[in-house]
Structures are given as structure tokens and as C-alpha cells.
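I would love for you to help me understand the pair of lines that follows before we discuss the fold together.
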Amino acid sequence: MNDLHAARLSLQAGGSDARTEIERAIEISQSPACAHVFTRTMFDEARQGAAEANPQSRLAGLAFTSKDLFDIDGQPTPAGSVVLSHAPAAKADAIAVARLRAAGGVLTGRTNMSEFAFSGVGVNPHHGTPINVSDNATPRIPGGSSSGAAISVASGAAFIGLGSDTGGSIRIPAALNGIVGFKNTARLVPADGALPLSTTLDTVCAMTRSVRDAITAHEILSARLVTAGTAPLATYRLAVVKNVFFDGIEPAVAAAFERTLNALRSAGARIDEIELPELADLQSINATGGFSAAESHAWHRLLLERSGAGYDPRVAQRIVRGATMKAHEYIDLINARRAWIARVETALASFDAVLSPTVPITAPSIASVAPGAERDDEFFRVNALLLRNPSIVNMLDGCALSLPCHAAGQLPVGLMLWHAALHDDAVLAIALQVERALQNQ
């Protein structure tokens, strides 16, 4: 499947045109592969956008999708819920949507998501659950919360899936669907026009089909140029953190990760195994509930009072936990996080990036975690496993990229490259080299 760069080169060479590409995207969007992917489509507007597209623009009239929590001018912003389906229409596009449009992207629709972005599983009881593209025999979870955005990219319906990442909501579905997801340092992309989950942790970012496309998407969203050098892998010093990230890991994920490390070492990479004892502090730091519960409750408390019966019970359960956090506990949490970030940054200062499994499991079946109280225990077990590794980077205020590292014919497994805040360009540069090494093995 072509990535954005290849499609754009084809357009410029006259091998295709934007209208043909949009019709192809619409056809896939309407196929069984995209069942439950969209909460609202915009195909007529997309056709008009493609007809007017400039093939020399960065996105050249090619398709992108937008997670349902971003404002789109003239539409309500339901964020995967039913309680906001009749909210007042937005008066302008979210900044991220506006930037993708200004770069020549054509928006084909709003994508499904975990309600209010509060789950890494991707199940939605209101709009159905998008189906992972990797297994035709067993319907598997897409990962969340940017579930529909991931399937739109993995199925071929879009080249960029705009989403958000609060605890892994870009990287989890990217890993489970075998595509690329880049979580930039949060402050680099404005969140204006995005319905919040946690104002401390929320990051506006995207999924793509390749690392080079991830760089393009990030440059557009952040309105800056990435300095991605071409130095060989041997130039960089990489780390593997052995504690926490591998707890409860599935054998298939462990095998894919070890095979990846061997391939990178064969390509010249210097990889050191380290302990990061600071990770053990996270449980006590978040003991009073964490940022997502407290900050989501602050936003939702009045809506819950009015319309709580319309919420996904699993989401409401997590939000109401924030009601018990006291003001001094929230301030203590902010201060503890700041001190923890400083300690971790010091521990990682001599490394250019860290390598970890994005998530420790492959995608379980939708049936095992589908809505229903009898499956709640399994849902929350899976949710915790999916969120554990990527959420560490959000607490660090860091940046991370997930790219596929599984062998052909196997369920997707993600490799996560990460570091502290504002190491984005180094992570992206290394990811380019890692992607090339894995493609050549």
C-alpha cells in the first residue's frame, strides 16, 4: 500500500489525480473494512476539495480523517458520545484540522473513538467498534482511543488519521494495526478546538503509513520543520529499559521485539540494556487518581449530572473517580510529576532514544471485551495492559513513535522509540533508520 509520499509523487508525475484518489478513498471508506470507522462522512465536500486541489501542495488533495473530538466548522463535536450529538455546532475548525486543510489535505470524515477518549481498547457501545485490519478470521479490537482514525489509515481510506494521545491513544492503535503513530511533545501542536480529556497530558498528533509520512504530518501540525539527519544507526546510543515494559508480555511480542533488536544490532546499532528504577515511583505518584480522572471530571461533572445515563458506563466509572481528588492532592501530583520528569531526564541524558514494545500484547478479540458487565473485568485488564507502556511517555511529557516490527503473516506488534520532551527530531531521525533496517532484514 502506497504511503503519502509515493501517492503525491504519482500525482505530480501525472500517474493519477486527486479526484481519482479521493474516489478510491471513498470506496474503501464505504467497504466492510471500514465498518463503524466513521461517525460522520463528508464525501461530497471531499470531492469538491479534490477537484480544487493543488497537486504541488504538501498534501496534494489526498485524504485525511479527523477523530470525532476535533471541531469542524458547522458541526457538533460529539467525541464518540451520544450525549453531545446535538451540541451547538463549532464555529471554526480546530487548529489541527485547519492546518491539514491549508496544506492541501481533503477531509473525508469524522472517525469513531472510545467515548471521550477514555480507553485504550477502542470499543464504543454507541457507534459500534471498528475492526482491526490484521485478521480476517477473528474480529479484533482496533485499539483506542483513536480507533477509527487508525483503521482509516490501515485500510487505505486515508493517508493521515488525525487523533490525540493522552496515554497512548495514537500509539496503541498504530501498534495493533501495523501502522506508524507519532506522539510529539505535547506543547508543539496546539490543542485549540479539541475536546479535552486531560489538559495536562493530551497531545494532538497523527497516524500514517510510514515514518516519512509521520514527519510530514508533524511538520504540518506543528508548523515547523523537522531536522531529521541521515546519520547511520551506529551514530546513536540506544537503550532498552528492562523493568516494567516487559511485565505480562505475550511470547509473540517478546519474540518480535528480540528479533528487532537483533536486526538493529546487525545494522550497526549500539543498544544498552538499562534499569530505570524511577518507573517504580509512578504508582505512588498517581495513587490519588492521576491527571486524567481529575481533569476529565472537572470538564464532565455538570454533563454527568444532566446526562450520565447516556454515557458508556465504563467511561463514566473512570471519570467519577476524579471527584474524590482534593485540591492539595492535585497540586502535589503536579509537583511530584515535575520532580519525577527531572529524575528520568537525568537518567536518560546519555542516550539518544529508548526502545520498548509499544504494548505488551497483540490485539484481543472484540468479543472478549465487548460492552457488558460480565466482560468488565477483562476489559479493564486489557485496557491497563495497553495503556501501561505508552502512558509512561505522557507522564514524562515526552515524545514517542510506534512503528511495526512484526514478521509478515503475524499479528501486528509495535516498536516504540521514545525520549523526553523536545527530543522529537532525534526520535524521528532514528525511526527513519530503524524502519529502513527492519525493511531490509
Remarks:
- The two ends are 19 Å apart (CA to CA).
